[in-house]
Amino acid sequence: xxxxxxxxxxxxxxxxxxxxxxxxxxxxxxxxxxxxxxxxxxxxxxxxxxxxxxxxxxxxxxxxxxxxxxxxxxxxxxxxxxxxxxxxxxxxxxxxxxxxxxxxxxxxxxxxxxxxxxxxxxxxxxxxxxxxxxxxxxxxxxxxxxxxxxxxxxxxxxxxxxxxxxxxxxxxxxxxxxxxxxxxxxxxxxxxxxxxxxxxxxxxxxxxxxxxxxxxxxxxxxxxxxxxxxxxxxxxxxxxxxxxxxxxxxxxxxxxxxxxxxxxxxxxxxxxxxxxxxxxxxxxxxxxxxxxxxxxxxxxxxxxxxxxxxxxxxxxxxxxxxxxxxxxxxxxxxxxxxxxxxxxxxxxxxxxxxxxxxxxxxxxxxxxxxxxxxxxxxxxxxxxxxxxxxxxxxxxxxxxxxxxxxxxxxxxxxxxxxxxxxxxxxxxxxxxxxxxxxxxxxxxxxxxxxxxxxxxxxxxx
Length: 461
What we know:
15 helices; 36% helix; alpha+beta; globular; 21 strands
């Protein structure tokens, strides 16, 4: 196994704008791929590509050259597009399974057409990368499901959704299976078939639920993303979670529920930039210096609140500060704020599925923080199983590529056996967990009411 990372830092600009240079995105993929092949201790026979499903750009299909920056999933500039569609939001949710929110691809695509360029094609970043790598013009069913333009029932582009977003008549990539061979690339050196395509979070779910379809997973990265499989039929939700395609393998669709926390590692970076900690690896040492948050409540909604609230207008808050508040209290409050949002997602997923989660499987860079993982287990009141390899996304899309290369394999054969590196059991009583969650919910309720211009009356959201 070879793991190589190529750093890619998007620009965070005033007004909720987050963008990346497409050339840097492509160069990072090629550099990491070439280095991984050089380090691999076994022969590589196929390639898979995972992607940020909601990042979009316009590009020239004749030359492959980008025509705009890549608008990253956190970018909020398409809020005005969404506001105009408020009266049709429920109709669009019924068709696509997604709320009308700048997080998803369609509003960003519409914004590009209105304000940036009408030339070329406008797609999610995977379609551009695949075209650069192989010449094909395709996207996989799971990524298409993250746009807000895919009919959830037919897994085909929705003419109604396209028209409502002002994207009717656009040239869109062909929707293929996640294990479909789409072409051959020489970008990494030797000619290799590209046989796996999948959204990053769905890829992580594939890797962590192959042995247990009832398992839910949460990836702790720039944001936190909880996904839980629901089976072959789409399930519209009443909780505020997203209903979307998990994957389509061999023509068979699996659906899932999806919930998001927008700022996780980015909130840790915020504390780092302020000088509170030296970096993510200091969370445990600094937070471990105090027994609790000292009454501090942190709602890390730097880019708004996602599921189940969908309030992009809300911003974060720190309350309960005192002269005795120190760095350790802020760290613990941040860990509780992250974990509390994940609890809300898990609670919503359990309600939609009709059964509580038995455990939560966790991956991503911040699972290396024992403090965050223990806090998560405490507030969730369920075990948290940490993946033995933090790169579950790579394992999942690798499994899709393996299935595309050897169609006769079963999913269980394609995915490595699940073996957690650590299991965190709840260490506090349920009553204490409920009290902490109550404080967080009251803080969220106050933020929501304040954003609506009404006096905050306290209570639980």
